[in-house]
């Protein structure tokens, strides 16, 4: 009998769901974290990255050797660079130059070409440049912001995993909102199982800069976003998100990024409002992507 070993692509998903032990405090609620940093390229974006490329292949839109283009703030770019390396594509990634050094280095480590726009141009400028390169014939823009293969990855995997891991007892789902693919796909799946599940989205307060999530200007709002699938939107300050991120590392041993800290902070707020709830927050990525920012420096 020939043994069938998995490939790295087979290792995307099936991430752990763990319980908060200390910072939840004295509560009747169960607070759970979905550790998406355990994916091969280190974030929740591994799921849609592989989905967008694989499903485009199945439709005959692309074939190995082609060039793919994407605007990214970091995690999607790293995940796409990995997926492109797995499947044999060239990858051009466009991102704001204020993204962390670790993210930039990870993308190029996988062989991607990196193009930077200014902090002032931001993700909107990166998205505009991606479209310009596509118009010039440089490659195909996958467009995570409008590509239905993004949320369907979470409908097919993240949502079902959470439902199974909580044995259908989940009452609240909390997720930061960037492209909104995670919250859209999970919301659709979880509400199909139980319409009473509350879906809580997280966005930064005006003036706060939380990597990976945005308050989108209306003209740049992701086309995959459907506001009716989110029951509540929580505004989060950068300070509260960063403080919770440090607490997760120091009091729980959970090393993650700032958007994840913000999601947990929102979950802790909600926990004061309800009893006997089962809450799940998405831990989007790992904290090692933020070491150069000084986030975890001793105070």
From TrEMBL:
UniProt key word Amino-acid biosynthesis: yes
Keyword entries, A-Z: Amino-acid biosynthesis, Cysteine biosynthesis, Pyridoxal phosphate, Transferase
Recorded GO MF terms: cysteine synthase activity
Domain Tryptophan synthase beta chain-like PALP: 9-285
Family classification: Belongs to the cysteine synthase/cystathionine beta-synthase family.
Alphabetized PANTHER family for the sequence: CYSTATHIONINE BETA-SYNTHASE (PTHR10314)
Name of the protein: cysteine synthase
Organism annotation: Pseudomonas maumuensis
């Amino acid at each position: 009998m020939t043994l069938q070993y998995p490939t790295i692509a087979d290792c995307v998903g099936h991430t752990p769901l763990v319980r908060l032990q200390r910072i939840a405090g004295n509560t009747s609620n169960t607070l759970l974290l979905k550790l998406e940093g355990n994916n091969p390229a280190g974030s929740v974006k591994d799921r849609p990255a592989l989905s967008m490329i694989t499903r485009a292949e199945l439709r005959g839109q692309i074939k190995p050797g082609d060039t793919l283009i994407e605007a990214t703030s970091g995690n999607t770019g790293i995940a796409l660079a990995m997926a492109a390396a797995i499947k044999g594509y060239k990858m051009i990634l466009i991102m704001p130059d204020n993204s962390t050094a670790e993210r930039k280095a990870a993308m190029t480590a996988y062989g991607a070409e990196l193009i930077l726009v200014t902090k002032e141009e931001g993700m909107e400028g990166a998205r505009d440049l991606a479209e310009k390169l596509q118009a010039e014939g440089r490659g195909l823009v996958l467009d995570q912001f409008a590509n239905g293969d993004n949320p369907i990855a979470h409908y097919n995997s993240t949502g079902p995993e959470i439902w199974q891991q909580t044995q259908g007892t989940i009452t609240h789902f909390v997720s930061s909102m960037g492209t909104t693919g995670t919250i859209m796909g999970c919301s659709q799946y979880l509400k199909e199982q139980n319409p009473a599940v509350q879906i809580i989205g997280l966005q930064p307060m005006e003036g706060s800069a939380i990597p990976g999530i945005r308050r989108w200007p209306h003209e740049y709002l992701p086309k995959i976003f459907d506001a009716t699938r989110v029951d509540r939107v929580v505004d989060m300050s950068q300070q509260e998100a960063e403080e919770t991120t440090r607490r997760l590392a120091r009091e729980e041993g959970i090393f993650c990024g700032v958007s994840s800290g913000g999601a947990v902070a929102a979950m802790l707020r909600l926990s004061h409002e309800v009893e006997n709830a089962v809450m799940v927050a998405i831990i989007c990525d790992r904290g090692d992507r933020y070491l150069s920012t000084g986030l975890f420096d001793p105070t």
